Every structure is written in C-alpha cells, then in structure tokens.
Amino acid sequence: MGVPFDYAPERPDHIEQILNGLDRYNPETTTVFQDYVMQQCENQTYDCYSNLALMKLYQFNPHLARDETITNILVKALTVFPNPDFSLGLSLLPPHVLAPLSSSSQNPAAGDAPLSEAVQKLNVLNNLLEGADYAAFWSTLDSDDLYADLVADVSGFEELMRVRIAVTVSQAVREINRSILESWLNLQSKDFEHFVGTVCGWSVEGDKVKVPLNKENEAKGTVVRENVKFDQFARVIKRAYEQPA
Fold first, then answer.
1. Which of 105-113's residues contact partners 24+ apart within 8 Å by CB, and which partners?
2. 61, 69, 131, 168: which is deepest, by most CB within 10 A?
C-alpha cells in the first residue's frame, strides 16, 4: 500500500493542526507556513501537502506571496522527482508568472531575477530530469550563477539530487557503464566510488557498476492467456457461416 499524499513524518504538530482545520484557509497562517518552508530547506525534510497549502493561500491572497518562498518550494519539489510535485506547484502560479520572458528583457543580476525568470529556469531543470537527461541537468545547473542563487537556501541540494537520480537508475538497470553514471551523478574518482559504494551500496567492477537485484529492475517474463470457452467459439463460427456471401 502506497504512502498517503498528505503524509509527512517530520511535520510539526502545529502545522498538522492547521492543515486539518479551517485555519489552513486563514491568510494569517501564511507566515507560519513560510517559516515551515525555510525549516524544510535547512533540515532536508519535505512536506508537499503543506507547501501546496501555502501556494493555495498565495493564489487567493497574491499580495502575501513571497518570491523567495515560492522558488524554495519549487526547488524542494525538484528533489523528489519523478514525483509530480513540481508540476503541482506550477499549477498554482498565476499565468503571467508561467509565461516566457520577453527576449528583449535585460538579464538581471543573480538574486534580483523576477519570479517569472526563476520559474522558467527551474522548469528547464525539471524538464531535463523528466527526460532523464541527467548529464545536461548538471551542466545546466552549473551554466548560470542564477541557478546557484535559486538553490542556495536548500541545504544539500546536489546530494539530494544525486540520491534521487541513483534511485531512478536502480529501478531500471542492474549494470551500467561507469563513465555514464559518473556524468549522471556529476562525480569523479574517489568521490564517485564513495557515493556509489557507501550511499548506494553498489559495486564498481572495472568500467562497470553493478546494481543489486530489486523488485523494480528484476526481469520478469509475462504470460498472456486468453480464456475463451468452447460455446463462445462456436457462436463466432456460427455467425460467420450465417453471414451472406
């Protein structure tokens, strides 16, 4: 049985009470939710249900919205891909934020980017993750100082992303070339071997990395059987003969 969508083991009691009562629609709880988002960023915890509740409050009270909190929510959502949390967050943003920026607009300095540009930048990362283009994800992340600014508040962002990439790899393969996995994890030499061996529990054998067998990457044969009773077959044959030539 799957984990409920609204479940978060580290959720504080006062946040739980707000989410389960009418106060979740009270604009005065906005600051409480905002503080909780920052707590998630600092403690490497995550609460999608609470974050979406805050985004919903922003939707109905746009004057209370904080760009920094919105981008932090979206960055945290990236760390749990391939879950659809990032797309859920985008769905609660106003259309003008989601619209691509004009090509004639000037590029602001890192830290001064409008929300629309920040969202577009993060959406590029999300699309690369959805397409499993992990090497391009890392190169894109390193290509612009704005990306570094956007993920700065999220403690351990790169490590969290490596863990999620490793999880998706473990669900698909049992063996992979070392060079490919190095590009996907953006790690080399001893750092790569430490992460693969200690964090993932995989083994490096020459130029190959072995992934232990699990229920996701185990090859299973599928047998398809059709249960057609004789009387059903007979009726089909009879209708075929009764049709006029």
1. 110/145, 110/146, 110/148, 110/149, 111/149, 113/146, 113/149
2. 69
